[in-house]
Amino acid sequence: MMKANEVFREITPLTPGDCFLLFDRNKKRFDFPVHRHHEMELNLILNAGGAKRVVGNHSAEITNIELVLLGPNLEHGWLNHNCRGENIREITIQFQHDILSGGMFDREQMQMLKTMFNVSAKGIVFGAETVNKLAPMISALSGKSGFDSVIALLKILHELSLSPYQCLLDQNTVEINLLKEKIQEDDFVERVFSFMNANYQQAISLNETAQTVKVPGKLFSRILKRRTGLTFKDCLTQIRLGHVSRLLIENNYSVGEIAYRCGFSNLANFNRVFKLKKKCTPKQFRDKYNGNRVVVY
């Protein structure tokens, strides 16, 4: 962790009357110091492979695509490090943590967004699949204004809340010496989630997933639990339910078909798991999200 006097406190131009501010910059190097501010921040950085991301006591070298969500007062910055790119694009979106206030976060439809905002206090990094999907939407945001721009930002945040992500802080990033190869835990978790996201519709096992990242089963379980707080089964269920939620919201498929499409082979078990995790049935979730009120006479 950096010392307090080494961290620059940024006073942003965001006022209480603003919903958000967006900065779209093309640059040749990172020259802004590690800093913090009261606002939340979403950063999309392209063509900066080799730069170093610093978030609190966490640091890591980034690839050419980077998308990070930061909570209020969280120390952060990007340093040139090994970056050789001269056509870096940096889109920074700053907004107040209470952008959805007045009880909005307590609505059923906002629970995934609320969870993501809470986790952002420790910093969140999104995987390549999510970045590739949302980068065009984030880039297009700079061309919008007024009400349309606010709706577009909320759509982006909603999509992020449905996507797999990793917490950056309060997790020990260590290197594991395995078969004379050093595997960083961050890379390990990203590859695990990438495999599960690509195969969630199938019946995949812990051992099969462990083999894809070349880590023995017991060590695999230990690292995954330490980095995510979840077991393999819980991680897979979380990913499947994320896809279920999206299909319930965006399509008119039957609940049974959605369950089958998302890797649940037993409908009764699916309904039990969904109700346990979401505190409602799939039909109630769909009705609530679509704003349909069920009236019982």
TrEMBL record:
User: Is the Transcription regulation keyword given for this protein?
Assistant: yes
A Pfam match? HTH_18
The record lists the membrane-crossing segments as none
Enumerate the UniProt keywords alphabetically: DNA-binding, Transcription, Transcription regulation
The protein's matches in SMART domains, at most eight in alphabetical order, are given as: HTH_ARAC
Keyword Lipid biosynthesis applies? no
Question: Please, which domain of life does this record's source organism belong to?
Answer: Bacteria
Molecular-function annotations in GO: DNA-binding transcription factor activity; sequence-specific DNA binding
Start and end residues of each HTH araC/xylS-type domain: 190-288
What is the protein name for this chain? Answer: AraC-type DNA-binding protein
Q: Which organism is it from?
A: Mucilaginibacter gossypiicola
Organism taxonomic ancestry: Bacteria, Pseudomonadati, Bacteroidota, Sphingobacteriia, Sphingobacteriales
